[in-house]
Amino acid sequence: MHLKPDMESFRCDYCRSVYLPQQNDEGVRVLDEAVGEACPICNIPLVNAAIARERIDYCTGCHGMLISMGTFQSLVDELPHASGAGTLVPPQADKDDLRRKIGCPRCHHPMDAHFYAGPGNVIIDSCETCNRIWLDRGELLRIARAADGTLPDIAPLPGDPGLDVLPNRLDQSNLVEGARMIDSIVSLIRS
Fold first, then answer.
1. pLDDT higher than 70, residue 168
2. Whole-angstrom Cα distance, residue 50 to residue 7?
3. 144 — phi, psi (to 5°)?
4. 120 neighbors 146 (Cβ within 8 angstroms)
5. Strand runs (DSSP E) across 27-186, as ranges?
6. DSSP letter at 110?
7. Which residue in 110, 127, 59, 115 sits closest to 90, CA to CA?
8. Residue 65 bridge partners (DSSP)
9. Do residues 1 and 19 make contact, with C-beta atoms less than 8 angstroms apart?
10. Distances from the Cα of 98 to the Cαs of 46, 73, 89, 144, in angstroms?
11. Please, which pLDDT band fits residue 17 given cuts at 50, 70 and 90?
């Protein structure tokens, strides 16, 4: 059996049987095929793995992940829907992680430690040269399950004007408009 490119399973060329490894508690299927790079944290070989049908490089020791930036964005978009898990209120990030200096497993240049710009309260390490992100254990799920500004679905009461135009997502582009709508709804409720 060998691993086919862009698959999360093994297939036997002789009998065509398929082996699909179990997911771990983070939803990662460890495929155990070495990728030729070492973990920047514990220095053991990284292996192929898959999460939400996306291939990543994975450390079986510290459970860190090396992910291309394009794959990372796909996973952040996909995981909240695939996991079925509720929203997580993330703990405070450890600011000491900002001072940590690790080398990129691919090019060995120092990675930049910085706060992830989205939800999750996570400090990530990125390599602009290789277009890769290093995530420590649990950070991907913290990002994916963090509150994202989505308002809960509201079932309007009969005769309530304006609830059907309330935006489902408040972000920078419609934050002011959303605040005005909320103010008008509060005014309607009070009157």
1. no
2. 8
3. -65, -35
4. yes
5. 28-38, 45-51, 54-58, 65-68, 112-115, 123-127, 132-135
6. B
7. 115
8. 58, 135
9. yes
10. 23, 22, 21, 21
11. confident
Say if residues 113 and 97 touch (Cβ distance below 8 Å).
yes
Distance separating alpha carbons of residues 22 and 10, to the nearest angstrom: 12
Which residue has tokens 């079932």? 155
3-state secondary structure of 66: strand
Other Cβ atoms closer than 10 A to 183 = 10
Strands 28-38 and 45-51: antiparallel
- Please give the Cα distance from 76 to 3 (Å, whole number): 25
CA angle 150, 151, 155 (to 5 degrees): 140
How far, in Å, CA of 41 to CA of 36, rounded?
15
Strand partners, 123: 115
pLDDT in tens, 80-127: 654 455 555 667 777 888 889 999 999 999 999 999 888 778 899 999
pTM of the model as a whole: 0.67
Spatial distance between the Cα atoms of 51 and 30, rounded to a whole number of angstroms: 9
